[in-house]
Amino acid sequence: MKTVQMTIDDALLAAVDEAVAAGQETRSAFIRAALQAELKRRRNSALEEEHRQSHLEQPDDDVWRPARRAWGD
Which 3 state secondary structure label does DSSP give 4? Predict the structure, then answer.
């Protein structure tokens, strides 16, 4: 693991310290988990946008139309 130095707002640091005070997690572990969660959220958001764009380019509606015709709709 690498050690990094960062600047953080006093109020945010106080909130982090309060969050970790009740548990057995360190400040560093809490911040690592928060960073991992944000990176995962961004990856998921990018994948969702990619999926949404693919549906705009080629909607799934055509897949179901033959079945509707077969039922007489």
Answer: coil
